[in-house]
Amino acid sequence: MEPEKIRELRNAVVDAAKSIFSKGLVENNEGNVSIRVGKNEEYLITPTANQYDTLTEDQIVHMAFDGTPLSSGKLPSSETKLHTAIFKSRPKVQCVIHTHSTFATMLSVVRKGIPIIMEEQIIYLGGSIDVSNYGEAHTDDIGEVALKALGYKNGAILANHGVIVCGKSASNAIKNAELVEKFAKIYWGSLLIGEPQLLIDEDLERFHKMFQQLFANCPRKLLK
Description:
Strand order of the largest sheet: 3-2-1-4-6-5
Oligomer: single chain
Number of strands: 6
């Protein structure tokens, strides 16, 4: 890919990273953002020990799917194996975001997923937000459990860790990260008030079709 295009993608990673930081979904030194490099088995990812407020495009790390760094300078995020697993299994995914947003991470600690509580949840994320089994950070394990928890959907909670989302674009992925935290807050609050009324007996087919047509990024076989 041409250097200018790589530079544009580096800046897109920076913009996405600063966006989730400004929205309070991560703090410095945590979470990570990656964007696929065209049709190559490569991606660009935020560096380890990332400082979001001072992040610049020259700090973004270029990685191959096999774990080889394709750029010099900063070391990549320690969660590269998590990102690689998703990119390899989902060719339509253009952006992967991992956050430690507070309410969703609280649910991750008690291993409590979010059932379908709003129609919007189906349209953008695909349905319930499930919790993965525990996978050790920085290893292949976390990629494997993340994929299992995602299933055909765009977001999941990582046990005792945080959130993983993916999207067909950076803006999609950012929206998904926001929504997981939003639904985590709503579900947490509703549990304090009373018994949440779930959308389990409603006809939700048209919302599932909207998801499949607009935002699904998994292999088609998973949607059957």
